[in-house]
Design a protein that fits this description.
The structure is a single chain. It is built from five helices and seven strands; from the N terminus they run ββαβαβαβββαα. By secondary structure, it is of the alpha/beta class. It folds into three domains: 49 residues, no CATH class; 76 residues, 2-Layer Sandwich (Alpha-Beta Plaits); 32 residues, no CATH class. The strands form three sheets. It has a three-stranded parallel sheet with strand order 2-1-3, with helices on one face. It has a two-stranded antiparallel ribbon with strand order 4-7. Strands 5-6 form a two-stranded antiparallel ribbon.
Length: 188
């Protein structure tokens, strides 16, 4: 065998002396690097990824043998641009493209999610982590006020005396409306 590389979800299970020579045991984040190294190595190569089966973990959670993670991951569809970077980085089948009223975007399929949070490795501001059932005191206080009870904002400038231009990048869907005389003529 020309080369063996070991990656794992828990480095604590390995001592440095138990890793193959020439490659320290690495985490899941090093799998792509390990694949490139092995592809460039002539001869028979082996990549061992030591991780408990996600389906088995799900079964154990349902049976109460291991704790259910409290934090869930969601994607805010109003922010998501459907670039699918999260799916490429995590290689997770629960990160799925879905059609929405805003175009093709991405959603985390909650019932098949393994709750390993690998989707958070993508570079995306649309991800939210939520702990169900917990409500911050500030949110509870804000819910005590209805929208009708909020005071109207005080304008800083006269809406009829200015115009505005906004630019968007990459389908961010910037929408604007200019209030004032031009609006009444039907142009924006």
């Amino acid at each position: 065998m020309a080369r063996v590389i070991v990656t794992t979800e828990d480095l604590g299970r390995y001592r440095a002396s138990s890793c193959p020579a020439g490659w320290p045991c690495g985490t899941r984040s090093r799998i792509a690097e390990a694949q490139r190294v092995l592809a460039a190595t002539p001869g028979v190569t082996v990549l061992v990824h030591d991780q408990e089966c996600a389906t088995e973990k799900r079964r154990k959670r349902k049976r109460g043998k291991i704790a259910q993670p409290q934090t869930r991951v969601f994607i805010n569809e109003r922010i998501c641009e459907g670039c699918e970077d999260c799916g490429r980085k995590s290689n997770c089948l629960s990160v799925q493209p879905v059609p929405t009223e805003f175009g093709r975007e991405t959603r985390v399929h909650q019932s098949s999610c393994n709750v390993d949070y690998s989707c958070l490795d993508g570079d995306c501001p649309a991800f939210m982590t939520v702990v169900p059932g917990l409500r911050p005191a500030a949110r509870q206080a804000a819910e005590a006020i209805t929208p009708d009870e909020l005071p109207a904002p005080r304008p800083v400038v006269d809406p009829g005396s200015f115009g505005i231009r906004l630019t968007g990048v990459g389908g961010t869907g910037v929408v604007y409306r200019v209030a004032g005389p031009r609006d009444r003529r039907g142009s924006s």
